[in-house]
Sequence to fold (474 residues):
Amino acid sequence: MKNNMKNVALHNLGCKVNSYEMDVMQQRLQEKGFRIVPFDAKADIYIVNTCTVTNIADRKSRQMLHRAKTMNPDAVVVAVGCYVQTGGEQALQDKSIDLAIGNNRKKDLVPILEEFLEQREKNRGTENQVTLRNTTVIDINTTCEYEEMTLKKTAEHTRAYIKVQDGCNQFCSYCIIPYARGRVRSRKAEDILNEIRGIVQAGYQEVVLTGIHISSYGIDFEEEAWNQGRSVEVMQGEERHDYRGRSKILDLVEQIHEIEGLKRIRLGSLEPRIITAENAARLASLKKVCPHFHLSLQSGCDETLKRMNRHYTTGEYYESVKLLRSVYDRPAITTDVIVGFPGETEEEFEQTYEFLSKVGFYEMHIFKYSKRQGTRAAVMKDQVPDQVKTLRSNRLLAMEKEQSKEFRSRYIGSEAEVLFEETKELNGKLFQIGHTADYVKVALETDRNLSNCLKKVCITDFLTDEILNCNTLD
Fold:
């Protein structure tokens, strides 16, 4: 059966980096004549872009692979990505998987798949069945260069996620990702700029810069990494970037800002210490940069942060928040928080609670600590019982709901610019749904299709707890 007669079903798990890579893999499959079908349809090939950030993510990856093989036992089931990198023999011996491809070979998905299919066809009907699953290169070499992939379009019609780097050097005690993704590898600015120019020409008005640890962008560029006041500290034998010098990610943002036709630049998760007075001022001078900043926190207690091997204090974090609020009127600041980390006492949790209350976030993503096999935290003493994690999580979720509503309420009676994205029916009425620059969701009642239109609106009231109502001004 030729490629143009083969149906391929795709399923993505995990982060925005995985989503970007899946979009590129789908794009390349279509260019080679494969037909893309829904994952719940019977397909000739199933490709699962796996995740391994938690034990639960591993389990979900296995479940999707097994589900694919159950839907069509004769299909080729391909496992791609992080679970393959860290799963070891358990992953490679899984009978549901016909072909395993690591993170550093995603760009080669199509030729690897074509070779596999060709070999499978040659051996069909013979006693000597050959499987390439055991011979596929699972490359976790942290010294490899950035794996270049170029996106031409994405499933979203208004914004495109642009991958600018891969890997992480931080080695937080709860995180497996440095082992799944390897050390920091940055993408060449020229390739990023060319990709964004193409995305803009295709009609996209907003880009989101994403990566595994985008604050590390550029530290692996030899000539640039040690210039302009940078320094490297050594902690437990591992390199750690101090971020207080001139930021290469902001150098990149300044270049992206010059691209004609691009309306919005949104940044992915940032290291708190990257927000210095100089860098905050640089950001504020770039009008296309959305005042929406995700500063990862994880805990509001310094002792807990030390056990997590996070490289900042709550005092440093709060200074970064104040700097952003000094250069922006009301920036949307979001964060992640882990509750029930090993050794977290009631006193430590209360410190976190008070700190979160003091900062006041637009949104908080609350996670109950989940053991990740292969990390230092998984074998730490004083693991917190699940029922305690749940109680603490519920308290923070209640705070998050209150803080988020308070932030949105400041918009009522004010004007904003909204990039509309989709049509949605709410309470029996048609609305156009979009986001402000700081990612507040807004609805306009109309039967017109405003997808990918930027409109000035007046915010009137709450439509739901999470969506604001508006009238247009133009």
About this structure: Residues 415-472 form one domain. Residues 386-409 form the longest helix (24 residues). Confidence is low (pLDDT under 50) at residues 127-143, 225-241.
